Amino acid sequence: MRWVLLILGGLMVVVGGTWLLQGVGILPGSFMTGQAFWAVVGAVVLVAGAALCSAGVRAGRRRR
Asked: Average per-residue pLDDT in the chain?
């Protein structure tokens, strides 16, 4: 379960970061560029992914 949380969380961090950067206009080249909606969605997905990664790290520490 630990690896599932870490992999899923890592993917969410990457996708959320991409959406956030596109939403604020730093990463151009998409229909999402400059759209505040995608900046907010990206930030939410980024935070959720970081929480999953944190849960995965904590799950690994409890077993030892």
From this structure: 93
pTM value is 0.88
Q: In the structure, what pLDDT confidence band is assigned to residue 63 with cuts at 50, 70 and 90?
A: low
Nearest CA to 41 out of 25, 62, 22, 64 is that of: 22
In the chain, domain spans: 1-23+32-59
Report the candidate in 3, 4, 1, 11 with the shortest Cα–Cα distance to residue 48.
Answer: 11
Ramachandran sector of residue 25 (left: φ over 0; alpha: ψ -120 to 50; beta: rest): left
Residue 23 and residue 35 in contact, taking contact as beta carbons nearer than 8 Å? yes
| Helix axes of 2-23 and 36-63: crossing angle, nearest 10 degrees | 160
